[in-house]
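Me: I keep going back and forth on a fold encoding question. No explanation is needed for now; the record alone will do.

Assistant:
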Amino acid sequence: MLRALLALVMILTSVFVLEQARHGVDISRFDVGQTPVTQYARTDATGPVVVIAHGFAGSQQMMQGYALPLARAGYRVYVFEFLGHGRHALPMSGDVTSVDGTTRLLVAQTNAVLDAVVDVSRPVALLGHSMATDILIRAAQDRRDVGPMVLVSAFSHVIDATTPQDLLLVSGAWETGLRGFGLEAAQMVLPTATEGQTVRVQDVRRRAVAAPLSEHVSVLHSRVARQEALEWVDTFYGRTSTVTIMPSGWAILGLLGGLVLGFRIVAQRLPSIRSQNVTLTLKQSATLALLPAVLTPLVAVPLTPGFLPVLIADYLVLHVLVFGVLQLGLLWMWRVRIAGLSPLAIVVLLLWCAVFGFALDRYAANFWPTSGRVWIIGLMMIGAVPYMIADAALSTSASVWRRLAMRGAFIGSLGIAVALDFENLFFLIMIAPVLVLFYLVFGTMGRDLTGKAGPLSIGLALGFVLAWALGVSFPLFQT
């Protein structure tokens, strides 16, 4: 009863905070060419235009932490999605390592959006995160209608002592390298500049700040960072805003945590089926972790598949398939049978994952695929289902340390793959946070139900969810 009450309080409190952050803001969507654009603005908004761009593997939802306070302050805010990201159906293309390749195409896309939404009477403000920081600076180079710029987790070779003229650089306190770059950019203007100091030399205004207790993702919901961004833009336009910056990051964690906690209560009320718990010796567990971790990249990397239009997704399908099949093969060799199927448990788990996905998509990050990604998700299930059946079987009665070792071995095997083919598989590094989140959320929910429904049911359901999560997380890319 106490657990149910705690889950309910977490969910309701978090939803209240997140909806309060959206209160009074009209959110509408339209297209510029084929680029999805989301507008955030009060009904009576007449303030300057702010254009916001997300980072690599991001989406417009990830930038709501900045878009909503600016919109509530009276600005007309437009957030667009880069090629291949979020709801954009067209893939990225070109050489991602060359300024004349993918970067040039993204700059052209950015300029098209700016041309469509700019207010000719006032300069437009630009705000971007990570990859977008370089794109925005390059887009602004040849324009005369750009005013203040706010770059979050920035890095760009284009920045010098005079370009851009009006620039705030925000980084997470734990982003050591990017934090150093932000301070270096301020010191280009004034060598004695320190963090938190606004420096002015002739027409150039610059400031570097570090958001406390933040890294590359949480900086998007840092109250300090968002307040700095609002004040920077206000100062340029001679405005004063009294908007309360809501603790959206904590609210998102509270909502998603409440949903995970609440599922345990639901799972306890489902009927049990007859299934066999997998009991392994320490030697068997070590073999199941280490042997696939070493063999999988040795088998998969030389094959270097290239048939899916999603960055490194085709290799990932092969990797999880080989890893899962090796683990299932070892269990079969040891006469461990994975039996028992509960359609009810599969449906309940998938429905709860859909509720979680709806909450994630509304408040934090894109979770729904475009039509062009559906077949990709289907193909990714070929690898994800065997892997998750094995994972569910191995985690049912395992201690937390053995579960960490098993899943750490899989992530480690991806690291070995990157080391074997760094040039082609570099982006696998970025899959680690997605996997950690998947294990914490969906893995926890699955384990809450495995004892009642058996690992086969949970593996089938979570194999689909893993394929879905990976299929919507990485950009579409056409070679």
In short: Residues 2-249 form a domain with the Rossmann fold fold (CATH 3.40.50.1820). The first strand starts at residue 26 and ends at 32. Residues 168 and 437 are 31 Å apart (CA to CA).
